[in-house]
Structure formats: C-alpha cells, structure tokens
Amino acid sequence: DTEVTQTPKHLVMGMTNKKSLKCEQHMGHRAMYWYKQKAKKPPELMFVYSYEKLSINESVPSRFSPECPNSSLLNLHLHALQPEDSALYLCASSQGNTGTDTQYFGPGTRLTVL
Amino acid sequence: EDQVTQSPEALRLQEGESSSLNCSYTVSGLRGLFWYRQDPGKGPEFLFTLYSAGEEKEKERLKATLTKKESFLHITAPKPEDSATYLCAVQAESGGYQKVTFGTGTKLQVIP
Question: A1: Cβ–Cβ under 8 A, 6 or more apart, which residues?
C-alpha cells in the first residue's frame, strides 16, 4: 500500500482565518514533505520532516507553520495567508531522506485564499 | 545548481501513435531519477525510479530509460486515458539532504 491521505480536499479561507491541513501515511515512512504547486508549475518544496524533526525549511514565510505530531501524521497550520498563497498543497512521504527514496504523494488540498 | 528540463512542453498524439518524452538533467551526484504522472488537480502518481545509466523499467504501455545526461519515457500505442502531465524529477545530495528537483512537465493529450 502506497497511500498518502490528505484532508480537506478543498479549503477556502479569508486572510484573517486560521486553518490546518492534515496528512497521514501508514507505510512506516520516516520522512514527510510539504510541497506547494501553482497551476502549470512543478511542485515546490516547502518543508521536510525526518524522523519527526524538521530538517528542511525552504525559506517559507512564517504564516505557514508545519507540525509533525508523530511518524504517521503531518500538519500544516495556516494563518494570515495572502491571495497569492492560493495553490494545491501536496504532502509526500518516503522511507527516509538520506538515500534514494521514492516520494509518494497524496491527492493534495486545493487552497483558495480570498 | 541542479537543473531538469523536459521536452516537449506539450504533446498531442493520436490513439495508437507511439512517442517519447525527454528529461535532460544537470546535477552533481545523481542518486535517482523519478517519473510521475499527474492528472489535473491531483497529486503526482509514482511511475518509475531509475538509479543508474543503462537502466530500463516498464509498466504497461510505458517504458523509462536512463543515460548519463537524460531519461526518456516511451509511450507505446497510447490510449486516451494516458492523457496527463508527466513529471520528471532528479534526486541528488545537497548538504546532507537528498534534494529532489522537478522538471516543468510534459502535458500529453491522446486523441481517440
């Protein structure tokens, strides 16, 4: 089973709202990722968690706050977003991130910021 | 800086008309090359991982090959359901982390 699940599928929020995106995997993977994808562009890496610790932050604005409560779950907390943050947010997981590990993606959350 | 270039940007094929998509890359210390398929509004679906030059992998109508500078995704006798954007990504070591760099994709349309 190579399934990564994400909720919600769609999210509309105002610039003053606080919301969270959730990601879950049960493949025993120890690395989890958040990506942002704009229309007709490739996914852009935002954060990497390795063994539940944040190992990479690709200079993402502080209005995005990741959290890894346990090895199966990854959250992305959103606060005071801007309309330009509207995008497809993708979660991925892999066995680790120190070898050649295939990343498996979830279906994404389509975020619209009004 | 690692670079991944995919061509063509878009490809329109008749059903049954075989073709190839190209992914050329410039990286230091390639650890792996990945092919994904992405349908509109959905997450990328994993297809293949290639590790070294000369390697080939097949799945149904798709065959991926790897050389030292590029990879090809061959589509044999495509069907309309093969229509999607195909993404290539390379993994290389960057400061102790295996960074993945994506190409911009090839949008494939297969016409019945």
Answer: A26, A27
